[in-house]
Model the fold of this input.
Amino acid sequence: MSKRNLYPRDYVDSTYSIDFKKLYEQGYRGVIFDVDNTLVPHNSPADDRAKEFFKELHEIGFQALLLSNNKEPRVKTFKEAVTYCSYIYKANKPSAKGYQKAMEQMGTDVTNTIFVGDQILTDVWGANRAGIRSVMVKPVLKWKEEPQIILKRFLEAVILLGYRIYKLYGKEINKVPVK
Done:
């Protein structure tokens, strides 16, 4: 495993700060999202902000898909609330297979698909392994996480330190448009 596979292509504060209109203008057509702590706090239902967000993505022209390691009831309930997307549950991230299946379902490929998630060791690593542009966001609520996620965050902090150093040397990162 190359450590570069652990670095996100882009790193932003929030899913909601990404300028998806500009990404669409750049040729992106599919967006894959993690759910918990990417769109809403862990195990929280879809809120009005998420519902409006998916409606806006649909109006722009994006295909959207929720890719989660969680069980179907959690992901399906969220999908039904936001409506304008499809979903894959028990995705086995960081395996590239779930990402590839997501692109198949959306009718997109690695050149026009973007992934947004909050964890390096599942979300970012999996997207990078699949060849998809990875955007890491800060977790919506860190304090509401399960113990195993909290442990992963410590390792991610070390990786993010390396990422920040990597960024200092002018590598092609942090180019995702933000509002």
In short: The two ends are 34 Å apart (CA to CA). The chain has a mean pLDDT of 88. The CA atoms of residues 36 and 79 lie 12 Å apart. Helices lie at 20-25, 48-60, 72-82, 96-106, 120-130, 147-168.
